[in-house]
Amino acid sequence: MTQTQTQSTESEGTIYKVAGPVVIAENMEPQMNDVVKVGEEGLMGEVIQIEGDKSYIQVYEDTTGVKPGEIVHNTEQPLSVELGPGLLGSIYDGLQRPLPALEEKTGAFIERGEDSPGIDMEKEYKFEPALEEGKYVTGGDVIGTTEVDYGEHKVLLPPGIEGEVEEIKEGEFTVTETVAVVDGEEVAMRQEWPIREARQVENDLEPKVPLITGQRVLDGLFPIAKGGTAAVPGGFGTGKTVTQQSLAKFSDADIIVYIGCGERGNEMTEVLEEFPELEDPQTGDKIINRTVLIANTSNMPVAAREASIYTGITIAEYFRDQGLDVALMADSTSRWAEAMREISARLEEMPGERGYPAYLASKLAEFYERAGRAKPLGPDNPG
């Protein structure tokens, strides 16, 4: 998860009140959804409500020991994910912090305020240009390719950039090094995207292609289309998680994004142990090589649970923009709703049915609407 720290005093405020995962700061003048660093330890948070000079911040880490009067730094940047080669095979928390890297730094339990880049900034990839200098390109176009464990990874021009290719390179580069210059702007293999903003597509397509789930009972009685959405309802212990794990293992999607949102630790442990060892029925390699795992278990901060869903869907959209079929498993959206209910109560909002916030339906619809089959901006294949 990207965090751009600014140093100007105008972007600082002070803590006025602490209520669990919600911190109220004053004299900050932020915008909605700005990422902030809270307190002496620099805990990551996000502005979710503004009333006069009071800013309400949901903090993505434990706020024990945080007290009024401490400084809050505003990065003046939205909550974003890092996209590029190196995503596949990764295991993240809900904020795209790589758990193996954090374990090396702090041990089995993540210390507060710790962070690490979402993708390896030191690893080099062989970049092969897909176009020549002088060609006019727009956001989403494929400017080159590189090889990853799963196969070919398309390097896309970030949306919002267009113009003539002034320079394009070939060779070994890290994800932060410049591989092309378009209309005076340097372009690297790495890009950032705000998690709460859907990535652009050329146009939406009708979901006509069936998703082969690998489960005869689902394919025969409950068929799902690529680009469609489906829910697996049921009580505790009835097999919802097992069904989603089976879909992740055996469906005919190119890429799997599995989000453990508020899941029990033992269930997520099973996924983390199985996927690196499980043989991929499509390639014969390990299935983890085409999978991104996001583990935000029930013992992790509740606010990060709310962000994990958006982190996962943004990563899935990135691979869709490469013309790939992506299956996203969110286990489970009911625990995501419970996280929203807790944060809403801390904000003292008027509760709706069963205490859930009144905007729950629109939040769920917003999430499911980001699924779909579409023609990407650059590649010819739909995703």
Question: Which SSEs are present, and which pair or pack?
Answer:
Elements: E1 12-19, E2 22-26, E3 34-38, E4 43-51, E5 54-59, E6 71-78, E7 80-83, E8 91-92, H1 99-106, E9 124-129, E10 136-137, E11 142-148, E12 151-156, E13 163-168, E14 171-174, E15 178-182, E16 185-188, E17 191-194, E18 203-205, E19 210-211, H2 216-221, E20 224-225, H3 240-250, E21 255-261, H4 265-274, E22 291-296, H5 302-320, E23 326-331, H6 333-346, H7 360-369, E24 373-375
Parallel strand pairs: 8-22, 21-22, 21-23
Antiparallel strand pairs: 1-2, 1-6, 2-5, 3-4, 3-6, 4-5, 7-17, 9-11, 9-14, 10-13, 11-12, 13-15, 15-16, 18-24, 19-20
Helix pairs in contact: 5-6
Question: Care to give the gist of this entry?
Answer:
By secondary structure, the protein is α+β, with helices and mostly antiparallel strands. It contains seven helices and 24 strands.
CATH superfamily of the largest domain: P-loop containing nucleotide triphosphate hydrolases
Q: What's the overall geometry? A: globular
Structural class: alpha+beta
Helix content: 10-25%
Number of domains: 3
- Strand percent estimate: 25-35%
Number of strands: 24
Sheet having the most strands: 6 strands, antiparallel, barrel
CATH topology of the largest domain: Rossmann fold
The CATH architecture of the largest domain is 3-Layer(aba) Sandwich
- Low-confidence residue ranges: 3-10
Q: Give the distance, in angstroms, between the N- and C-terminal Cα atoms.
A: 25 Å
The largest sheet has its strands arranged as 1-2-5-4-3-6
Global mean pLDDT:
89
Please identify the top-level CATH class of the largest domain. Alpha Beta
Q: What radius of gyration results from the CA coordinates?
A: 21 Å
Oligomer: single chain
Total of helices = 7
